[in-house]
Amino acid sequence: MICDMHIHSCYSFDGTPTLEEICTVAMERGVGIIAITDHADMVDTGGYGVDAYYAAEPARLEAFAHLQPWNPGVEVLYGIEIGNGHDAKVATEKLMEGREFDYVLGSVHFLPDGTDIYKMPFASPEEIDGMWREYFASVLRLVNEGGFDCFAHLDYPLRKMEGKVSACTVEQYADLIDPILQALVKQQIALEVNTRGMYDWQQRVCPEDWVLRRYRELGGKYVVIGSDTHTVDYIGTGFAEAAAALKRCGFDSYTIYRKRQPVQIPLD
Ligand SMILES: [Zn+2]
Ligand SMILES: [Zn+2]
Fold first, then answer.
1. Residue 70 above 70 pLDDT?
2. Checking CA distances to 257, which of 74, 90, 146, 228 falls within 20 to 30 Å?
3. Looking at the predicted structure, is the pLDDT value of residue 262 above 80?
4. Which bound ligand lies closest to the C-alpha atom of 118?
5. How does pLDDT run across 194-245, given as a tens digit for each residue?
6. Ligand 2 centroid from CA 66, angstroms
7. CATH fit for domain 2-266, picks 3.30.70.980, 3.40.50.300, 2.60.120.10, 3.20.20.140
């Protein structure tokens, strides 16, 4: 069974495909379970944050309502990726109120001062080091606040560091990452294996093996595989590499979420 628990559709500000297009490609590729995790960034983004999510929501709900009868070959889970929920707690509570998601991803896309990490120039080693320290501190706060099922793309800022770092690793920040992994275990929040690096410059899944091993050693059980694609091109991409990474790090299953409940699927 192949799944992809991190897909952006045309209801994300930076996504293109309709749900029908996503399902068609998922079926062609034998991806049996998908989660549509459109963006809701909770901080002031200048027009593409949670207000954009609310504006698209009626059409999104309508599209979901018509999906299952149209395409019984793919199980489509109703997800969301909430960015920086811990920096706007009241707004995030309002978003969660009365909405029944299958799966809620939590992520950090912005530094505490509002800087969009994706737009940072990363012009010097000092800027990069300062960003990582702020980023991991923010992630720890997010996980300690909880209220979501899985923490997305631990090494997200690396996406923008092609040619700017000598090694594609966050191992030098192991002392900042360890408390995050401990908090994930304590909060029973899953760790995402994000496969975007397989179709980006990193050429590996995120996180690195040592992170997966340490999460497992601390008692972490829940690991969710997702491509983070924003087009139909990468649906299911990197699933095999993610499964292989999990196996060599000692996991024998991965996790999907239905109605916010974890379901373990054997890796074989
Ligand atoms: Zn994200
Ligand atoms: Zn995403």
1. no
2. 90
3. yes
4. 1
5. 999 999 999 999 999 999 999 999 999 999 999 999 999 999 999 999 999 9
6. 23
7. 3.20.20.140
What's the confidence (pLDDT) of residue 47?
84
Domain ranges of the chain: 2-266
Q: Which ligand is nearest to the CA of 80?
A: 2
Q: How many CB atoms are located within 10 Å of the residue 108 CB? A: 28
d(CA 232, CA 121): 28
The alpha carbon of 196 and the centre of ligand 2 are apart by a number of angstroms equal to: 10
Structure tokens at 111: 């530094």
User: Which ligand places an atom closest to the C-alpha of 35?
Assistant: 2
Integer Cα distance of 6 and 149 in angstroms: 12
| CA 100 / ligand 1 centre spacing (Å) | 21
For residue 8, how far is its CA from the centre of ligand 1 (angstroms)?
10
Give distance in angstroms: CA of 149 to centre of ligand 2. 14
H or E element at residue 255: strand 253-258
Name the residue type at position 123.
Answer: A
* Distance (Å) from CA 163 to ligand 2 centroid: 23
Structure letter (DSSP) for residue 242: H
Average pLDDT, the chain: 96
Predicted TM-score (pTM) above 0.85: yes
